[in-house]
Amino acid sequence: MRILFLAATLAFAACATAPARPTSAQIDAFALRAMDGSGAKGLAIAVIDDGRVTHIGAYGLRNAKGEPLTTRTVMYGASLTKSVFAYTVMQLVDRGQLDLDRPIADLLPRPLPDYGDDADVVDDYADYGPLAGDPRWRAITPRMALDHSTGFANYFFLENDQKARIHFDPGERFAYSGDGIILLQFGLEKGLGLNVGDLTDKTFSRLGMPNTSLLWRPAFASNLADGWTIDGDVVRHDERSHVRASGSMDTTIADFARFAAAFVRGDGLSAASRAAMVRPQVHITSSQQFPTLWPQLQLPPDQQRPDLASGLGFIVFDGPQGLGFYKGGHNDSTGNTWVCIERGHRCVVILSNDVRAERAFPAIARFVLGETGAPWKWEYGDMPFWRTTAQSPAQN
Fold first, then answer.
1. Which has fewest Cβ within 10 Å: 23, 279, 292, 323?
2. CA neighbours within 13 Å on the CB side: how many for 176?
3. Nearest-CA neighbor of 52 among 386, 313, 346?
């Protein structure tokens, strides 16, 4: 019944003429229908119009005890962290502290593979020792880390031997990589002496985001979301003890709405840096995002989507309303997305502590924003009924 109801919900969003600016009551009603259709236990939605937050809503449960999910419930941000990190990096560029095209290796006092002997580096970042036989690590730049063209797998532990390696010349093509983001974090912290957690906390404080951090805070425990898997199993919220620029952020829908609104307005960045983040950097040539390195996913030129590209911290596309950009976030019990169109500075942010909610994300985004052209099948594969496996979007 839920699958049938979800199909009806998706069809309704595709065919109905939704209001250009749906009311909060209409969004609330659609969110509840989407939850019923997908089977999701918890969902939160924020809407930004003209760079202003116009709607924030939370629906359902935050845990198996039956406690309600609220707009101030702390939820796992997953890979939305990468957009926040990219924003932080571009602030460093604006201040002249970082050059996007200067190799990360140039920031470090020692050759990158030499850090494979440092247990703290291996524990906190990655084991870069196996790169010793491949000099291409010297060519990787901050830009390549942010546009996912380092040549790394998503994470080194997904390699058959769980060792770091470079699969193609850095900058050659897109392949989503959390460990590429971690390498840039390593360069900033070990090379420039910066602290990514402190840098992001300053941004969160400036924007009025009291319940957001890349590091776990005990205060979060009083209003915290656990999660549900595709099979309906409950997963306790992971208390992240290390800052991971690829995905350790905790946030609330109220807080992240403020960040999304600030970003689309261009707050905190030069016009050039803001534009660069949503400018196509590397054309995407694959039929779907995951698995990141499968050669059979690479399409011949005449089958590629010509407008689909990686920006800096985002995926960008050109849809029926013009330039759009988005970032997803996912693990076995979390589904998040943030979709924006530049025209009108309009966005929808969707956070869920139940991965089953992802089945309804295209319908929700379409209801709020109209048809954007967001590449849902590329992002999720065979939506809406894919299952999480080690070779699916389980680590993005």
1. 23
2. 26
3. 346
Rounded CA-CA distance 159/14 in Å is 39
In terms of Cα–Cα distance, which of 239, 195, 199 is closest to 215?
Answer: 239
The two structure tokens encoding residue 91: 């602030």
- Which of 32, 20, 18, 24 minimizes the C-alpha distance to 54? 24
Q: Which residues contact 81 (CB under 8 A, 6 or more apart)?
A: 214, 244, 245, 246, 247, 248, 249, 329
Query: Is the per-residue pLDDT at 17 higher than 60?
Result: no
CATH level 2 (architecture), domain 2-97+209-278+314-395: 3-Layer(aba) Sandwich (3.40)
pLDDT one-digit tens code per residue, 275-330: 999 999 999 999 999 999 999 999 999 999 999 999 999 999 999 999 999 999 99
Q: Which two tokens stand for residue 331?
A: 């693990």
pTM of the predicted protein model: 0.93
Over range 6-30, report the average pLDDT.
66
CA 37/CA 31 separation, integer angstroms: 10
User: CA Rg, the chain, in Å?
Assistant: 20
Give the SS3 label for residue 394.
helix
**Nearest one of 193, 195, 282, 235 to 78, comparing CA atoms:** 235
CA-CA distance, 6 to 12, in Å (whole number)? 10
Residue 264 and residue 230 in contact, taking contact as beta carbons nearer than 8 Å: no
Tokens of residue 322, six digits: 């013009």
Q: What's residue 16's pLDDT?
A: 41
The pair of structure tokens assigned to 141 is 């730049």
